């Protein structure tokens, strides 16, 4: 059952990247992230009450709460970096780097959770790493550049924080219902996101957001909430070193829609890189 939730997470995560990219075209990425988190928070707590898990709040241990809060902080940092990277970079380049957090997650799962690194996992790590490298390489004949290389730094930071999120989240939901754990983490992300908005003085830009951007921001919030609920449900009962790679297959959804919506085409080298990433990810299911 956990594998079904993992693939569900991948589907919704892929849709999130496209919807968010549409929503931040004319909106500050930090403001958009903060607004999206409100939708995610509402969605998450609605699921808690539907499942009748709100009564478990009083039984949460301090260790569990600490790891949930740390996981929320890492998630917030990952989001802020990821959507800033999406705003200034191409989806087809930003997404592979973010998904390469799979490698770091497997290493951290080995070091901190004792999950073994088998030969298959080792091969998968090389395939995913090599595929990511091919996808972010500058293509011959392509002269259009993103705004400097700032997108690369933000994308790498997003991957690092995403890896920490998975490990901290895995520990945090061991003694708690995954739906309730997700809702608690979302509170932390919301606070963090709005702190960044006010620190950067971008709160006044909210009233300048057009109706279309509002629509995409809200929709991306719902797909994010759905992805989170599926992801942490899968993470609660499945191994982190396998759940995380399945979730990263959202790259197929993202790149497919990026072609349809933004007309971002894959060149031969990028297509080969994507093939390596997918093969490496699927190998982890063996």
UniProtKB/TrEMBL annotation:
InterPro entries: EamA_dom (IPR000620), EmrE-like (IPR037185). One of its GO terms (cellular component) is membrane. The keyword tRNA-binding does not apply. The keyword Lyase does not apply. It comes from the Bacteria. Pfam families: EamA. Coiled coil: none annotated. Residues 2-136, 150-285 form the EamA domain. The chain crosses the membrane at residues 30-52, 64-86, 106-130, 151-171, 183-201, 213-234, 240-262, 269-285. Keywords: Membrane, Transmembrane, Transmembrane helix. Belongs to the EamA transporter family. This is EamA domain-containing protein. It comes from Cellulosilyticum lentocellum (strain ATCC 49066 / DSM 5427 / NCIMB 11756 / RHM5) (Clostridium lentocellum).
